[in-house]
Specification:
By secondary structure, the protein is α/β, with parallel strands linked by helices. The protein has three domains: 1-52 and 93-113, no CATH class; 126-186, no CATH class; 191-363, von Willebrand factor, type A domain (Rossmann fold, 3-Layer(aba) Sandwich), CATH 3.40.50.410. Helix content is 36%, strand content 20%. The strands form three sheets. Strands 7-6-5-8-9-10 form a six-stranded mixed beta sheet, with helices on both faces. The protein has a two-stranded antiparallel sheet with strand order 1-2.
Length: 367
């Protein structure tokens, strides 16, 4: 049975989805959705939806609400004290609507025309699932199959000759009861790990880290919609690298010089220890302003990428965030060493307005 409110609810959800699509770039560049994130949903502000309001009828009409009083007299209470002079401009009506992260990922995928990811390594990773596959004569009452129980009772009464079509009363007995049965199956499951690496040297300021934080939120949202099980690891580096939690990753103060190879070495160790490439879909994302300590370290980075990180990963993504103090050289080195390798995806992010295009660049190949 369809409730009367259901069509209106669906229509409202369609309006909400349309507004989010219309303003997606604005939501992404401002990053305000991150602060509104819950466990499985995000509170989305929609200032363009008008709020219903009351309108006064004609004074001469009778009916409820008509009676003595002057215009402006408050109803049901004392008159409030006079405040500042009233303004002459309309206010902005902001409505907050909860949208699931799954639905947000779907909107992002539609807007950027992202292909679904084709996982690798699923044949070695299995999870246990229970599926109802048949009917049994024994089981818990919570799984009793009422239709099959009724049919068994009917068959028994017909066979025994006690069934009366003029008075069709069916009373199941204990032997008539049937229950849904299940079978435990081992089914393939796609596992993925996201490795976020970020340069936190002195040239990476708060604006650069905020761009990384916003982009990471949307990368997480999309990848979690593609995999049943996903892990995330965070690596920060200046001249040395270390594994940290998410809060530290996005809030650590910047200082020191830069050795990018330290992050790549640590990423290699994390993968070798916890995430066998034959069983995991691996997504390293490295964000930096492009400065590195020297040519020798850059050569070491290229060797680590070529021999380990890129063969192990679905894709390797490098995002270069523009900084007033960064040289921007590292992305040029990557282009020179991997000119035609589709596993290496590069993106230059000069401002928040370019985050949307960067997401398209990173996720657009469906790997």
């Amino acid at each position: 049975m369809v409730r009367r409110v259901d069509p209106d609810s669906r229509r409202f959800r369609d309006i909400v989805r349309g507004k989010i699509r219309e303003n997606l770039k604005s939501y992404i560049s401002r990053g305000e959705l991150i602060a509104r994130q819950g466990k499985d949903s995000v509170s989305v502000p929609l200032p363009q939806i008008d709020i219903p309001n009351f309108r006064f009828g004609k004074p001469e009409q009778g009916g409820v609400g008509q009676g003595p009083g002057e215009e402006g007299t408050p109803l049901g209470g004392e008159e409030a004290e006079a405040g500042p002079e009233a303004g002459d401009q309309p206010g902005e009506h902001v409505l907050e609507v909860d949208v699931s992260l799954e639905e947000l990922a779907e909107i992002l995928g539609d807007q950027l025309e992202l292909p679904n990811i084709e996982p690798k390594g699923t044949e070695s990773v299995h999870t246990i699932k229970e599926r109802y596959t048949g009917i049994d004569k024994q089981g818990p009452e919570s799984l009793r199959h009422f239709k099959r129980t009724f049919k068994e009772a009917l068959k028994r009464q017909i066979q025994s000759g006690v069934y009366d079509p003029k008075n069709p009363v069916i009373v199941p007995m204990r032997d008539d009861r049937r229950y849904r049965s299940w079978k435990t199956q081992s089914v393939p499951q796609s596992n993925a790990v996201i490795l976020y690496m970020m340069d936190v040297s002195g040239s990476m300021g708060s604006e650069q880290k905020e761009i990384v934080r916003i982009e990471s939120f949307w990368l997480d949202t999309w990848l979690k919609s593609q995999y049943e099980n996903i892990e995330t690891r965070y690596i920060i580096h200046d001249a040395a690298a270390k594994l940290v939690d998410a809060h530290t990753f996005f809030n650590v103060r910047e200082s020191g010089g830069t050795k990018i190879s330290s992050a790549y070495k640590l990423a290699k160790e994390v993968i070798e220890q916890d995430f066998p490439p034959s069983e995991w879909n691996i997504y390293p994302f490295h964000f930096s302003d492009g400065d590195n300590w020297g040519g020798d370290d850059t050569t070491l980075c290229m060797n680590l990428l070529n021999e380990h990180l890129m063969p192990w990963s679905n894709i390797f993504c490098y995002g270069q965030v523009k900084s007033a103090y960064g040289s921007g050289q590292f992305i040029k080195d990557l282009r020179e060493h991997f000119p035609e390798d589709e596993r290496m995806i590069l993106s230059e992010i000069n401002s928040r307005d370019e985050i949307l295009q960067s997401l398209k660049t990173f996720l657009g190949k469906g790997k």
